[in-house]
Amino acid sequence: MKRNSITFKLFSISLIFIIGLLVILGLFQNYLLSDYYTTTKINQLEDNLDDFIEEFLNNQWTEEKLYWELEKFSIQNNASLAVMDSSYFSTSSDFTNDYVVTIEDGNGSSYDVIIDPYFQDEVMYGRLPEKGDEIEVIGFYYEGDFYTQSYYYPVEIILNGISFKDELIYSNEELKSEEELLTDGNLNGEDTIHNEMEDLVTVKGSVVDSDYFFFEEKNANEVIYNTDDFTIYEDPYSSIKYVSIVTTVEKDGMPIQFYLDATLQPVDEAKGIINQYYLVFFIIAILLSLVIAYFFSKMFTRPIVVLNNIAKDMADMNFDKKSPIQSNDEIGMLSESINILSTNLKSALEELTDANVQLKEDIELRVKQEEVRKEFVANVSHDLKTPLGIIKTYAEAIKDGIKKEKSNYYLDVILDEIGFMNSLVMDMLKLSKIESGAVELIKEKLPVKLLLDDVVSYYKPILEEKNMSIHYGGKNFEAVMDKKLMIQVINNLLSNVIDHGNEGTQIEIYMDEVNQRLYFANEGPLIEDREMEKIWDRFYKTEKSRNRALGGTGIGLAIVKSIIESHSFTYGVKNRKNGVEFWIQLKTS
Question: What is residue 174's predicted lDDT score, i.e. its pLDDT?
Fold first, then answer.
């Protein structure tokens, strides 16, 4: 993974985000958890106290009913609650003076037992356990949660062998009344005061600590935070924080005050354990984050890499590759746009290439035509110079009044030169048209023998004059060609072998059906090897004297070459034992 790649950047951002989130969570847990716990605990106590006061104001409770409701509230909230007015002060004030006894059994386990003022006065008659006493407690067990501690509430205490039993609880009639009170308080299920005797538990051991818990003790404590709604203070001996809430209401025109005290259970120990757990969790989370961030970055950047590779191919003028990505998001839209762009660029490039090819062909054609024109002018100027000079000389002689018999001869020479010039110009024009591509081929499938017969019939007088004959060989076959132009080819080749053949010899024409070849051969002078390739050039003559009777115009074989090449045929010439042979490779389709 390259450092400058988008995969590395996305991986780094994802990892930093996850680590930052974990760090923020750890800081919150380490520095704000205590405040969050305190705020939550106080809000819960205020809400529960408001509900208690509302129920108190809406009902006419007896002192006994109020006692059980206060007891229930205390257990549910792990708090002490007193209701103080002229009618309930004594009972409520005593209720707040709970006596807490810590018992240690033979196994070293400790248990806290809360003895309320009723049990102190009405059951134990003021004989309370002290440090070192042997004690057995039979009662209800309340298991605390995150906010509260666990306590035992006695129904019978055996102190140094003396039994103190709460007869109110053991009496069936009174127990029924208690059950009704507990049922009215909705203590089923999650509440810890049980209304069945079978739920009683027993703890036994020695008293290791005992003390009262008074509301008045908070006056000696250090106030940490004070508002109109509540006060937070700290016990200077145990360093445990408490919250005190005082609320005043009116009932039947009489002011009533509610005093609530509750411990704010320290969470430092829990924070330490959580921090240890969080350290392990943080390491595991970092490792998982590395894996998740890597695969997430790969998953996100994979289509971008694919699109980048396709864009590189497009930059290299390769438009064949298409993006396989198909999705309904922005990446899918970009993929579709790149595919459309690739198709359009390929089409435009092909059109431009075709246009360039056509333009190149047009330019080459124009250049070729210009070269042909220049060559035509040069060759015509060269070959017309001699006949024009002869015509001028003979015409001047006739004008000067030479003898009549010479005048007729001069006129015949002039006419011959004019005929030669006419043939030369016509051949030049024909060659120029063929080489410039101005002649359109009209191809058709024709038997070769048919074209040969048309041309040979024309040369019968010449053959008879030179005492020559033509012999056909091979088997006739069909070829695809332009009839008019191929007649010109056959005419020029046949004229050449006749002109350069010895008198009284035989001209051979052979049709090779297997190889689709046509041969023309004579008996006469051979062509030198150094001239074998030059005979196809215009105005080239093997007769150096340029004797018109032997050499012709010098354009015939050039015309043959141009016509055959325009048909995409092949051709050639070679010396035989006693003559020269020309051949043409035709095509049947």
Answer: 41
* Alpha-carbon Rg for the chain in angstroms: 64
Cα 167–Cα 171–Cα 173 angle in degrees, nearest 5: 140
CATH number of 441-585: 3.30.565.10
Taking only the tens place, the pLDDT of each residue in 82-99 is 887 644 443 443 344 678
Locate the domains of the chain by residue range: 62-266, 330-439, 441-585
What phi and psi values does residue 377 have, to the nearest 5 degrees? -60, -45
d(CA 208, CA 203): 14
Q: Beta partners for 211? A: 100
Q: Where are the alpha helices (DSSP H) in 59-186?
A: 63-77, 89-95, 117-118, 167-170, 172-184
Q: Is the pTM of this model over 0.70?
A: no
Identical fold for domains 330-439 and 441-585, yes or no, is no
Output phi, psi for 482, to 5 deg. -85, 115
CA–CA distance, 198 with 181 (Å, rounded to integer): 18
pLDDT of 179 higher than 50:
no
Alpha-carbon distances, residue 370 vs 376, 435, 539 (angstroms)? 10, 11, 18
Structure tokens at 198: 């079978």
Q: What is the 3-state secondary structure (H, E, C) of 188-254?
A: CCCCCCCCCHHHCEEEEEEEEEEEEECCHHHHHCEEEEECCCCEEEECCCCCCEEEEEEEEEEECCE
Q: Cα–Cα distance between 365 and 388 in angstroms, integer? A: 32
Phi and psi torsions of 71, nearest 5°: -60, -45
Distances (CA, A) of 130 to 152, 285, 390, 461: 17, 53, 165, 164
What whole-number distance in Å separates Cα of residue 438 and Cα of residue 365? 10
Q: How far, in Å, CA of 437 to CA of 566, rounded?
A: 8
Query: Any idea which fold 330-439 has?
Result: Helix Hairpins (1.10.287)
Pick the most confident of 155-159, 250-254, 303-307: 155-159
Q: Average pLDDT, whole number, for the chain?
A: 77
Cα gap 72→64, rounded to integer Å: 12
H or E stretch covering 306: helix 268-315
Q: Encode pLDDT of 272-325 as tens digits.
A: 667 677 677 778 877 887 777 777 767 777 777 787 788 888 888 887 888 887
pLDDT score of 255 more than 90: no
Beta-sheet strand order (sheet of 231-234): 79-84, 254-264, 241-251, 231-234, 222-226
Give 154's DSSP letter.
Answer: E
